[in-house]
Amino acid sequence: MKRKVAIVGFGQTEMVARSPKTKMELANQAVRRAMDDAQITIKDVDEVVIADIEFFHGSGESEMQLADCVGHYMKPVMKIETGGTVSGSACISAVHHIAAGACDVSLVSATGVFPAPPPDVIPRGAFLQASLSAGMHPVWEKWCSVGAIGLFALMANAYVRLSGCTEETVAKCRAKAARNATRNPYAHLRGIMTVEDVLKSPMLMAPLRHLHMCPITEGSAALIFASEERAEKITKNPVWVKDVVSLHGAQYWGALHEMFAPKERVALPSLVKACDILYKRNGITNPAKELDVVEIYEPCTWAELVFMENMRLCEPNEAWKLADRGATEIDGELPINPSGGVTCTNPGMPSTMLRFGEVALQIRGDAGEHQVPREVRLGLATGFGGTGWTPLMLLSKYK
Asked: Angle, to 10 degrees, between the axis of helix 86-99 and the axis of helix 351-364?
């Protein structure tokens, strides 16, 4: 990048199943918290980037609704829509804008609110899946209309077959996420969960259980990025963006055979390639040793294990053994998702941004009760969505 870029502010709302606040109110609250964190006002912001998926909200031109609440009235504004990765795409765009010299301070906002008919008419999950299915190809992706549960059940089945992973280990991994979430005051699902609780939860589609899957969450988040010169004036504790990568996986879900019908290892191709690019550019040869914390976008617990392997954090088919011996705990060898991750909080549009923001908090030492109990100097955050999209952000304590 031509100019160095840093995160100088992060704000999020309390994440809940159904928020009493409107989309505009939530967005405004998160933006205000981000500006308070950076100790700046909207006058200091040069541009705003909005991340949204409008068909989930049932409205168009959301940048008009949000103008007064996010603060982009009479400012340059860009709205991005790339599926579940959208806030990651928006953050990476903001980084590029600053690095290229187009602006010095960029505010990124993402809000998830999911209006739906009354639950006795149609469950909210089914309503959202109907929206997703409407965007699928009627021939090549007809089988994908079973939704995330069916897709991740296929992936989990393949992982069990190739790795020998036990259901007890996956339950341990999910219980770990729940313990971390209890320490995060903004997390959605914050109750203690035992291995037995997970194993007794209803089977959705073997081997995928109800408690393996992420919830539907409502809430908002905002990140503020700044150029090197402005960042050092704004805060004494900037978190430096060392690198970003964004790759698109496939035109159709059905093309992701390495994820759903693999022969040797389960892989999300875009995540594998994106990590390889990022590690090579930054001289990272042993990511498990060189990274101090990782926030992975894991829509289900099985995905955390698969994505760990795709990120070269361990050998293929070995991630479940690391989880089984506690290596990914908050005080383990490589803490994975100390925030509780997506399996505990999934507001959709802000979910990738939360991964970026949580790593920034860890590096600053401001994560509170879910702070990793050692110095965090380098962290990696991932996103997931669309047809296998992968955005990555490598963050550092040092320039």
From this structure: 60
